[in-house]
Amino acid sequence: MVKFSVAGQREQAQAFLFDKDGTLISFSHWPQVMRWRARRLAQQLRLSPQQEGALLRLMGVDPATGEPLPGGLLLLPRVEVEAQVSGQLASWGIAEAAEIVARIFREVDEEFPFQEYLRPTPGAGELLLGIKRAGGKVGVVTHDAVGPARTHLAALGWGELVDVVVGADSCRSRKPHPEGVIQACRALGVSPQDAVMVGDTAADLQAGRAAGCRLNLGVLTGAEGKEELAPAADLVIGDLREVRVH
Question: Are residues 23 and 34 in the same domain?
């Protein structure tokens, strides 16, 4: 058991399950990823500058400044991003849009210099290292695909600190359904009752609660605020520095 404290409470657990984006990794790299995706689609499909700009705006990036736009796709699960981008391309008369988008996104996953843009949330790396040193197990349950998620973790030097990754392409149901959490626990060889779920959205915490995790911990480093997280969380903290392994 890993002994730790959070918000003045002493706890213990065999495993920690984390969401990825907004929980372990900040969203700061996504505008650049979206620019690469839009540019690659524009080049291969010979889109006009106006169409490329429309794709960027749909993806949640201002074409002029490169800054995030409210209401875009930056924070949505990968499958939803692919579906909406495919829908936009199909509306322009492009055939086999879904297959093209999936292929381009995979190419960008392989070629984008993630190591230059990825930033951990405060305390993330230290917490992962502390859990492993204490003999604990670590899983990531994400709406991203497994391959890209492992690429992101490896780019931050965390490849050996995460024992299992469950992604959108390795389980049928997305959070808040508990399938991914249960699958991760099974792969780690632990009961959900001996695991902590950590996430930045209510869906993360609802998944952990539905699976029966012993503690569902919300963090304010991502997509949602305390008002959204509190109803589904056992505790809400500012960032992962507030979790201290003993």
Answer: no
